[in-house]
Amino acid sequence: MKTLFYSMVAITLLYALNSCECSVSTARVTDAKVCTQLDGNLCTQDNETLPASAREIYASCTLKNAPENTDVKFTWYYYGDTKFEIDNVILSSGENFGNLDMYSSLSRPNNGWPRGVYEVTIEVVTDNAKPVVKQFNIQ
Question: The pTM is what?
């Protein structure tokens, strides 16, 4: 009786795994930083506070262990009365693989940066990805 039960459980699990359309990757985001100036494709330092005079704000990271065509999503938020999304962009590694430096940016609005708390999340677009979250202030 136990053997039949375990056989049925195993068959059910195999069926479930074969029918799953999951997207799992070994790729991960490391060294996420926020800055106002890049050196190549990376921020040289991480800034928790940025000046309202900044023309551009960058978020950079290193994508590690990436297979070809790995997508990385950068989502920018502002905390006014409530948290709301400013913009998002999905970058692809294309034919590149291994370790890649990536960045996204926001340009200063015509009427300047609203002062306050901002956030950028960076994540590999797969089912097992945990986003990296960077909060910063504009003063």
Answer: 0.80
What is the per-residue burial (b if ≥16 Cβ within 10 Å, else e) of 36-75? bebeeebbeeebeebeeebeebbbbbbbeebeeebbbbbb
Q: Which burial class, exposed, middle or buried, applies to 108 when counting CB atoms under 10 A from its CB (0-12, 13-18, 19+)? A: middle
Closest of 61, 65, 60 to residue 27, by C-alpha: 65
CA within 13 Å, CB half, 81:
0
Residue whose C-alpha is closest to residue 34's, from 43, 25, 22 = 43
In the predicted model, is pLDDT for residue 75 greater than 70?
Answer: yes
pLDDT classification of 13: cutoffs 50, 70, 90: very low
In angstroms, the CA 112 to CA 121 distance is: 22
The type of residue at 101 is D
* Measured distance CA(99)–CA(28) in Å, rounded: 9
- Specify burial of residue 20 (Cβ count, 10 A radius: 0-12, 13-18, 19+): exposed
Please give the Cα distance from 49 to 69 (Å, whole number): 33
Which position has the token pair 């890649």?
Answer: 100
